[in-house]
Amino acid sequence: MKRREPDKVSFVGLGYVGLCTAAVFASKGLNMIGVDIDGEKISKLTKGEVPFYEPHLDRILKSAIKRRKIGFTTDIAKVAETGTTFITVGTPSRQDGSIDLTYVKKATEDIGSVISAGDSYHLVVVKSTVVPGTATGLVRPLLEASSGRACGDMLGLCSNPEFLAEGSAIKGTLHPDKVVIGANDEKSGNSLKRLYMSIYVRQKVPMIATNPTTAETIKYASNAFLATRVSTINTIANICQRLPGDDVEIVAKAIGLDPRIGPLYLKAGPGYGGSCFHKDLQALISLSRKLDYDPVLLSSVERVNENQAIEIVKLSRRLLSSLENRRVAVLGLAFKKDTDDIREAASLRVIEELVKNSASVSAYDPMAMKNASKVLSPKVEFATDAMSCLKGADCCILMTEWDEFRELKPREIKTAMRTPNIVDARRVLDQDDLQGFNYLAVGLGAP
Ligand code: UGA
């Protein structure tokens, strides 16, 4: 084994969170090791190839590799060369909505056993999203047993949730609105605080110091709150849609000016998607029920979201009467713009509903075609660009707010489509430009 460098930091699990955070830490001058069990991923990363799309990640990763600030390995033993190890493995959902902690347990035990031979302080930081109580109730006993050390002088443990949003993860890590440090003990908390202060040297980043369970709850509370805002505005949108002259965009703008409400996460749409909101809400609901409390609000937030896809399809039915054998062009598959991620995307629920109603579906996304074809073929015909997707369509449903869709020329759309019916599920088009179209949009009442 190479000499141990106490200031060196390791990340175990190089998915979205692990890789983005490790790359930013390296760009800030820390010496990093990234560990993952996936050999193919490691060899790609070693060459500077990023396995998913995230703005700026490619550039900062290549630069960190060039400056030898970050290295990648499948060998977990390498964490013993570092002084701090972040656990950033996945926490997938189980069938019943609760989270599967298998990877967290395995990473904890592996880290514990490789540091057991050493005689220096090692700090373990749980960054994976885990339900409240996990660090204290599960990680700590496993870590102590596998390392043969007790948390305290020689072993540190913190919960340190992440709040990155896909598409702005690098910016979010460079300029976070807060860092949450849930420390098992004072020494652990101080060690992690020092590490973050070395990263955010000249920035005033609020640090929330608390215990591990509260830190874990902060993460779930944050996503529950954001998802609730989205389902609330979508509920208002569905009411506006049914009232002549009403418009959710103006409602959102006005209520957003109230400082108690604020303007963000008030964009009505086809429902939230992505790998986090649904998964985290389900995990919180499941935990809550285990604690003998039925969180009816959170269940409703999820139900509103599930139904929102049906509301969008209803709009297309209003234009076409029946969807049977009608050609519907779906523009946008990613769960939001600037990502190739289609996990839990509203487009999947909308397409499922369209297919159930015997529509024939063509689809296009600027970035998510590869991921989409894995789950949607052969249900959907994939087009190579927006205009060919619209060709011969009886209706277009605009699902993702990609900038390129804003630039589509109404005259060309009209020529390409069989009938100029548009359902704007993201409010990206300007109704005034769409003379001669039948245009329905989320949250927009009839003129
Ligand atoms: C979300 C949170 O924003 C992050 O803070 C958190 O760290 C992350 O989950 C996670 O737990 O890892 P993300 O899933 O990348 O990040 O996406 P968001 O930008 O929050 O959007 C989620 C969904 O809500 C998208 O489908 C988006 O289109 C939708 N949304 C968002 C709306 O429909 N309306 C809005 O006003 C805002």
What's a concise summary of this model?
By secondary structure, the protein is α/β, with parallel strands linked by helices. The protein has 16 helices and 14 strands.
Ligands present: uridine-5'-diphosphate-glucuronic acid
Strand content: 5-15%
Q: Supply Rg.
A: 24 Å
Helix/strand order:
EHEHHEEHEHEHEHEHHHHEHEHEHEHHEE
Distance between the termini: 72 Å
Biggest pleated-sheet summary? 8 strands, mixed
> Any low-confidence stretches, pLDDT <50, length ≥5?
none
Helix content: 40-55%
From the spread of the alpha carbons, the general shape counts as elongated
Mean pLDDT comes to 96
What features would you describe in this structure?
The protein has 447 residues and is of the alpha/beta class. It is 43% helix and 15% strand. The chain has 16 helices and 14 strands. Helix 1 packs across helix 3 (57-66), helix 8 (212-240) crosses helix 10 (277-290) and helix 11 packs across helix 12. The structure holds uridine-5'-diphosphate-glucuronic acid (UGA). Uridine-5'-diphosphate-glucuronic acid is lined by residues 162-166, 223, 226, 230, 265-267, 269, 272-274, 276-277, 280, 335-336.
